[in-house]
Write a structure and sequence with these properties.
The structure holds two protein chains of two kinds.
Chain A: E1 4-5, E2 10-14, E3 19-25, E4 32-38, E5 45-51, E6 56-59, E7 62-67, E8 72-77, E9 86-93, E10 105-106, E11 110-115
Parallel strand pairs in A: 2-11
Antiparallel strand pairs in A: 1-3, 3-8, 4-5, 4-9, 6-7, 7-8, 9-10, 9-11
Chain B: E1 4-7, E2 10-13, E3 19-25, E4 31-37, E5 43-50, E6 53-57, E7 64-70, E8 73-78, E9 87-94, E10 107-108, E11 112-116
Parallel strand pairs in B: 2-11
Antiparallel strand pairs in B: 1-3, 3-8, 4-5, 4-9, 5-6, 7-8, 9-10, 9-11
The chains are: A mainly beta, B mainly beta.
Chain lengths: ~120, ~120
């Protein structure tokens, strides 16, 4: 049973436009959410995170929005650049839970292609 | 200087063999992990060690045995390899924070692609 879902396996965007990557979750115990970016032949790298006490977190061109009632979060990249082309993983954790440390539940990823 | 390094990057072997993947982190982190990314692209935790002690052990066959000689190293040994073990295995580490809060930011290695024939 997928607790974190990224229903779009791929997304193609023109350079300079906005990229919106979506993520849904089913476990209401999740209270911390992260986005990881992965280039081919490399490990995922942390991009941005958000706690459930917030509904928005911004870092430069990257903004994550959280809608707890809908159990939905999204990553906005604006403006998109060709170097943003990568696989983006959404991940969630229940921070306060027993044994939760490091037990991030990952989505399957969305492959973003930003075309020049 | 690589923060989390794992070797080998590629491993091709026959069914029934025993193999190991090594992982080292130079970040001074207290916690290390093994994740498996299978053919369906799911990235799932297998083990978590904190200061050489096992913290998380998800439902993984006991053919998989992690070993942590010190907190900077977490090796993964796999006995009697099966076809279904073919995957990319990622090592990761994180700094354990005081108190109950752990932001969950993991630093991943580059992955080790295991192919079992």
């Amino acid at each position: 049973d997928q607790q974190v879902k990224q229903n779009s396996p791929s997304l193609s965007v023109q350079e300079g436009r906005i990229s919106i990557l979506n993520c849904d979750y089913t476990n209401s115990m999740f209270d911390y959410f992260l986005w990881y970016k992965k280039y081919p032949a490399e490990g995922p790298t942390f991009l941005i995170s958000i706690s459930s006490i917030k509904d928005k977190n911004e870092d430069g061109r990257f903004t994550v929005f959280l809608n707890k009632s809908a159990k939905h979060l999204s990553l906005h990249i604006v403006p998109s650049q060709p170097g943003d082309s990568a696989v983006y993983f959404c991940a969630a954790s229940a921070v306060g839970g027993q044994g939760s440390q490091g037990n991030l539940i990952f989505g399957k990823g969305t492959k973003l292609s930003v075309k020049p | 200087d690589t923060a989390v390094s794992q070797t080998p990057k590629y491993l091709v072997t026959q069914m029934g063999n025993d193999k190991s993947i090594k992982c080292e982190q130079n970040l001074g982190h207290d916690t290390m992990y093994w994740y498996k990314q299978d053919s369906k692209k799911f990235l799932k935790i297998m083990f978590s060690y904190n200061n050489k002690e096992l913290i998380i052990n998800e439902t993984v066959p006991n053919r998989f045995s992690p070993k942590s000689p010190d907190k900077a190293h977490l090796n993964l040994h796999i006995n009697s390899l099966e076809l279904g073990d073919s995957a990319v295995y990622f090592c990761a580490s994180s700094q354990e924070l005081a108190g109950a809060l752990n932001t969950g930011e993991l630093f991943f290695g580059e992955g080790s692609r295991l192919t079992v024939l």
